[in-house]
Write a structure and sequence with these properties.
5 strands; two-stranded antiparallel ribbon; three-stranded antiparallel beta sheet; Alpha-Beta Plaits; alpha+beta; about 180 residues
């Protein structure tokens, strides 16, 4: 039969042992821990290198990237090219998966070592890059392509007509059935 209070005595012995050891607590804001290599911090964009291909916006599973683009003839070739005039990264939505970094063809979007994002309002976590501000309250999900109503209505009518008719079994290949029976 176990003695009463044995568990308390065991716990208190561990506490007394650790009471006199050196403390290893760090005061966080003053002394920051060294971050490991390949840390995924907050995202940032080099707008000078961005070619406004919109691949980062399309691949983002959280839809936290919004890009507003226009066409400009920046190099004087007479052929206008896409140019990002507004770029927003909403850190309140981002899960730091790094898919946007991997898909960028010119490596203009990348993770920094900054990881402390705090704000009193969620809209303050949407960081703006570029010349023109983009409204962070608009959902940047790509539009879903819908089928034309005429084709959808016609398809439903065909399904109803086919649903009433009895189903036929698939026909066997003519060559196999006649030769197999003869042998």
């Amino acid at each position: 039969m176990p003695q009463l209070g044995q568990g308390i005595l065991k716990g208190m012995s561990i506490t007394l042992r650790n009471l006199f050891k050196n403390k290893i607590t760090r005061q966080y804001p003053e002394y920051k821990r060294d971050l490991p290599d390949r840390t995924r911090g907050m995202l940032t964009v080099d707008m000078d290198r961005c070619i406004a291909c919109l691949q980062c916006m399309r691949v983002c599973p959280d839809h936290c990237i919004s890009i507003e683009q226009t066409k400009r003839d920046a190099d004087g070739s007479g052929k206008p090219k896409p140019y990002a005039v507004g770029f927003v990264i909403d850190d309140s939505r981002c899960m730091y998966c790094s898919l946007c970094v991997e898909v960028c063809p010119v490596n203009c979007i990348y993770h920094t070592e900054e990881f402390e994002a705090q704000a009193y309002n969620r809209l303050e976590l949407a960081r703006q890059f570029g010349e023109r501000p983009v409204d962070p309250t608009i959902d940047p999900r790509p539009p879903v392509k819908k089928k034309p109503k005429k084709a959808a209505a016609k398809g439903k009518a065909d399904e109803k007509a086919d649903g009433d008719a009895p189903k036929k079994a698939p026909a066997k290949a003519a060559g196999k059935s006649s030769e197999g029976d003869a042998a």
